[in-house]
Amino acid sequence: QSPQQARQQAPGKTLHGNLDPCALYGTPEQVKAATEAMLREFAGGPHIANLGHGVYPDTNAENVKVFVQTVKAWRG
To answer: Which residues of 39-76 are buried (b: 16+ CB within 10 A; e: fewer)?
Structure first.
């Protein structure tokens, strides 16, 4: 089910949507692009951005920072 379908079935509800934590293994530019794509997919209402299964222990901390900064800066 897409976020748009969920919004139609539960209008006014906040959706919790996730970025695959494996996306954090990319370059900072790839992390930013993947995060923005996820944010666009959930646009149109309240949304809690998160990672699908948390941060893996060997994830580059800089990429976690890119994820958080991208979410905080999003004005989509």
So the answer is: beebeeeebebebeeeeeeebeeebeebbeebbeeeee
Average pLDDT over residues 35-60: 95
| Predicted pLDDT of residue 17 | 85
The pTM score is: 0.91
By the 10 Å C-beta count (0-12 exposed, 13-18 middle, 19+ buried), 3 is classed as middle
Backbone torsions φ then ψ of 12, nearest 5 degrees: 80, -5
Provide the residue ranges of all domains of the chain, joining segments of one domain with +: 3-73
Residue 1 is predicted with a pLDDT of 84
